[in-house]
Protein 1
Amino acid sequence: MRVVILAGGTGGAALAAGIQAVAPQHELTVIANTADDDEFWGVLVCPDIDAVIYRLAGVFNDQAGYGLRYDTFHVLDAMDRIGEAAWFRIGDKDLATHLVRTGMLRRGCTLTEATRELCARFGVRARVLPMSDADVRTRFTTDAGELSFQEYFVRERLSPRLRNIAFAGIDTARATPQVVSALNDADLVVIGPSNPLISIAPILALTREHVARERAVAVTPIVAGASLKGPTVDMMRALGHDPSPVEVARMYEAVAASFVLDSRDAGLAGAITKMGYRVLIADTVMRDGGRALAEMVLSAVAR
C-alpha cells in the first residue's frame, strides 16, 4: 500500500515513525512542512524535515523535542562567547546535517534532492519530501511586530500576543512534481496530528487539489481540550477559533473523509459525523512510539 502522511515536526513525524514500525512493507512517503525553515549563520535549518528524518532513523531527541539524541553544543557555546546571538539551539551533530544540506543547495541541488541524500545518509528508507523547493516562510503578526517562526517560537517563547499568521512566498510556490505524484498515487493520505494552523495549512495550500478526499484521514491534534505538544490550542484561541477537535475537523472537511477522534472526546463524534466524516475513535496519545495509532489509521483504508 502507498501511504502518504502530511507532517509537521512533532505529532505528524511521530505518527510517520509509528507507520514505519508497524508496516515496513508499505511504501511510506512523508510530505514535510518547510514554512518554519530559516537560516542561521549561513546555513539552512529545516526543523520539520529534520524531525521526520531523525524520527524515522531512530535518533530524534524526544527529551528536548528537537535535534539529535546525545548532542553537544560546543559550537553554539563558542558563538555565544564571541558575541553572537545564540538563542537558537543548534547542536554540534545537528549542525552537520545543516552544513551538508546547505552545501548541496549552493552546488545547485534542490531541497528535494538534498533531503533525499540526507535520508540515504541516515539510513531512512521512506521518502521524505519537502512540500516545495521554493521558499515559503511563516510570518507572525504580533504585538511586538512581525516575527519569523523561529523568532516567535524560540526567541520570544510565544509571549507577544498573536494577531495573524501569513505564509510569505506561498502565492508563487508550487508543490514539487514528486509531491504531486505521491499524492496522486496514494492509497491512503494521512493528515497527521500536527498544528493545523502552521504545520498543515501551508502544505494543504500547495497540495489541496491533489488530495483525494475519499482516501484521506485526518488525526486530531487536540485531546480533552489540550494540544499534545506545542501551542495549537493557544494559537487557535488567539485567532478566534474554537480550540476543539470539531473546529479542526471543520478545517479539513473538504480534504478528508475520515477523522480520528481521541476516545476522551468521543462525545464530539456526532458533531463531526454531521460534517460528512466517518469518525474513528482511538487513543491518539502516542506513548508507544505511534504504533497503536498507526495500526488504527492504516486499518481505516480497509473499512
Protein 2
Amino acid sequence: MKNQNLRALALSLLTSATLLGQQSAPAVAPAAAPVTEAARPAAPEVAPELRALQKETEKLRIEAARVQAELALAEAKRAEALAPMNAETAKLSAEKALRAARVAAEAAAAEEERAKLERTAALEAARASARLTERTNRIRDLEAESKQLQLESANSVGRIQGDIVRYQKEEEARKIASKAQPRYLKEPLVDGTLVISDRRIAMNGPVTDQLAEFVSERLSFFNNQSSEFPIFLVIDNSPGGSIAAGYQIQKAMASSKAPVYVVVKSFAASMAAVITTLAERSYCYPNTIILHHQASTTLSRANMTVLKEQLGFTQIWYERLATPIAKKMGISLEEFVKQMYKNDSNGDWQAFGDRAKELKWVDNVVERIEETSVLDLLPEKSAQAVLVPARPATPPGSLVETVDAQGRTFVELPPLQNPFDAYWIYDPRGIYRAR
C-alpha cells in the first residue's frame, strides 16, 4: 500500500509538472469586445532583459518540478522493489526475537535448576561437614578417653608395682637390718642430735598432687601403726609447688594423731617453706636455706577476666597461708611483704637456718641428724617416681629432666587439678614448666 501511494504521488507530481509547462506557453487571447482608444489603459513598459529572466526562471522551475517528479517516481519504484526484502527482514527479525525469547526462557529455567542444584549441593555439603565434624569430635573424645584410661591404668599398675617393690624392700630391710633397729623417741632431740626413726616420709622436689596423696597415705599408714611416736617429714630439697597440694599436706599433718615434725636438710622454698614454718615442730641445719616469697602464677593463655579471677583466688590463697606465718613472726601480713622486698629486690626473702630460727621460720637448729632406719633398702618415698612405670627409678621426690629443641634443660610439672590452683614455687632459672 505504501509503494502504491508513493507511485501515485510521483505520477501526480509528473502530471503537475506537465501542466505547468503547458501553462507557461503563450495562450491565444480570447476575442474581446472592441474598445475605444480612450477606454484602453496604457500597458506598462517591460524591459526585454526582465522578460528573458522571467522566462529562464520559469524554465528552471518547470525543470525542478520535473526532476522532483522523476525522483519521486524512482523512489516509489525502489520502495516497491525493496518491499519484499523489507517484509522478509521483518519476518526474520520476528523469528529471531521469538527464538531469543525461547532461548532466554530456557536459559532462565536452566539457571533456576542450576541454582536449585547448587542449593541442594550446599545443603548436603553442610550436612556432610556437620556429620564429619561430629564424628571427628567423637573420635577425639574416644581417643582422649582412651588416653585417660591408659594413663589411669598405667598409674594404677605403677602404684601396684610400687607397692610390691616397697613391700619387698621393707621385707628385705627387716631381714638385713634386724640388728640395727630404728630408735623410736617421743622427744627426738637428744644432746643436740636429731634422731629420726623409720617413721619418715621424704618430701623432695616440686609439691604436686601426687606427692600430696603419697604423703597423706603414708601419714595414715604410720598413724595406724602407732600414734605415740612422731612422724618425720624430711625435706632434702624442695622449691615449693602447688598451693592446693601443699594445703592438702598441711591438713593431713594437722589431722595426724601422731605428731608430725618437718626436717629440712638443704633447701625449702615457697610452699615447702610454708609447710616447714607452720608445722607443729621443725628442725634444720645451721646452713639450711629457707626462702619465703609471695605466691605467683604463670598463666599465659587466658583472657583478662580469667586472669583477674586467677589473680584474685591466688591472692586469697596467699593471704590464708601467709597470714599465719606473719602472725607466728609477730608482724602483720603487710609488714611481712614489705620485709620480703626490703631483704631482696625480687621479694625472695631467704635465710640460713640459724637466722630462720630467729625469724621463727623454723623451731630448732641442730648440728647433727641421725637416721636410724636403713634408707637404701626402704621403699621409694615419692609417688612421682611411679608416674611413668616404663622409666627407670628416679630419686625420691624428683621429676625427670628433659632437654627442649633449643637445648635447654627443663622439668615438666604435672597439670594442676584444681581450676583455681597455682604453682607457688621458687624457679629463678625457669626450669619448671607446667603442661
Protein 3
Amino acid sequence: MKTIKRSWAEPYKIKMVELLKMNSSAQRKKAMKDAGYNTFLLKSDDVYIDLLTDSGTSAMSDHQWSGMMMGDEAYAGSRNFYNLERVAKEVYGYKYLIPTHQGRGAENILSKILIKKGDIIPGNMYFTTTRLHQELAGGKFEDIIIDSAHDPENEFPFKGNVDLNKLEKLIKKHGADKIPYISIATSVNMAGGQPISMKNLKELRALTKKHNILIIHDMTRVAENAFFIQQKEKGYEMRSVKEIVKEICSYTDGATMSAKKDALVNIGGFLTINDWNIYEEARNMVVVYEGLHTYGGLAGRDMEAMAIGIGESVSDDHIRARVGQVIYLGEKMLSYGIPIVKPIGGHGIFIDAKKFLPHISQDNFPAQTLAAEIYLDSGVRTMERGIVSAGRKTNGENYYPKLELVRFTIPRRVYTQAHMDVIAESTRSVFERKNKIKGMQMIYEPKYLRFFQARFEKIK
C-alpha cells in the first residue's frame, strides 16, 4: 500500500497580527533611490515583506512575553541572569557565561582576549563582523572550509565542513602557537546556511587536541545545524535536536552567541567558555564595553525572554517547521528555474546572482543590483551577500568571493506560506526580465562593513 505524504503545519497559532503596508511601484522607486539602492537604508515602513535578516526579527511566544513581565531590573545580580545562566548550561553545556548586548559584543571581547598581532584564525568561511573583529585585534582570517562550499550547484549535504588538510597546512606553515583558536560556525551563513557534520566536528576536535588549539563556536544557528544532522547524518535519526545541540557544543571550547537568531529574541547575546582564565578576563572586559557581568548591556526582561527562547529553539516541532518553511520557499524557487544555492540551507534562500545576472560583472555588483530589483518589483526586502559584503583586504583591495549571493532570510514564526508564494512569484517576475537589468556603481563607501551603509546608483 502506497504511503500518502501528509502536510505539516506550524506548531503554533496566531494571537496578534501586525498590519502590513503595500506601497505603489512609484513609491518603491522613490524609496529605493532615496536609500542609494541599498536595502539596509530603506525605512521599514516602506517594506512589505522583510527578509533582510532573521536577526532580532522573529516572533516571540506568549511564554516569552509573559517572562518579560518578570524582569528583575536590578543593576547587579538580577535573577534573570541566573536563570539564563542555568538554561544555557543545561542546553549547551559550557561552564561559564557572560551576557552581551548581541553577538558582536561577544566577538569583540573574545578577539581582544585571544588574538595578538600576527595571529592566524582559521575558520569555515568568514563572517563579516567576526572577521573584522579578528582583523582589528591584529589577526588574519584564513578560510579552511571544504571547496564544495564555494560551489552553489554542489549538493553535498554538509558544505559547512572543515577541510582538515587545509588546516594542517596552516599549522605546519605558521605553527600552532600562532593559531589562538579555530573559528567554527554551525549553519555557515555566507555559504548559504550550510551545516557542518558531527563526524567532521569530531575529527576537527581530535586534530586540535593534538596541537593544543581551541575551537570557538559561532553557535547563533546551532539548532538549525542540529536539525540537518538529525535528518541527514547516519546514527542521529532517533536523536532529539536538543541532544544533538549539546553534543555539537561538547566538541568545542567556547562560543559566541547572537541570541537574536536561534533563541528567538529581539536583542541579546552572550559569550560562553569552559576555561576559567578566559572567563575571568572576559568578566573584567565586559564591564568596560557592555555592562556589569550579570547584565552585559541587557535589561533583565531581555535575559528572561532569552532563557525561555533557548528552550523553545531546541524543540523538534519548532525547528522542523522553521526549516520546513525555508525548504518550501526554496523548492518553489527551483520550480521556477531560479538559480539558488543547493542544498537548501537552514535560515534562508540564497540566489546565485552570477547565474541570475550573468551579463553583470562582479565589479558592477550583481547581487546588490538584484536585491534592489526584487524590492522594486514587490516591496520584498532581501540583502546582498557578495562582493559588497566581502569588503576590502587590509591593503585596500577588494575581496572577490566566489559566491555572489542575494539572501532571502526568513524570520522565525513571522510569515505564512502565502507570503512565501508572493516572494517566489516576485523573484520569478524579475527573472523573466533579467536581460534588461543593468548593474550599479558605488558612490559612497564607509570605512568598515560597507554593506550596511554604502550607496549606489544605476549604470545609465
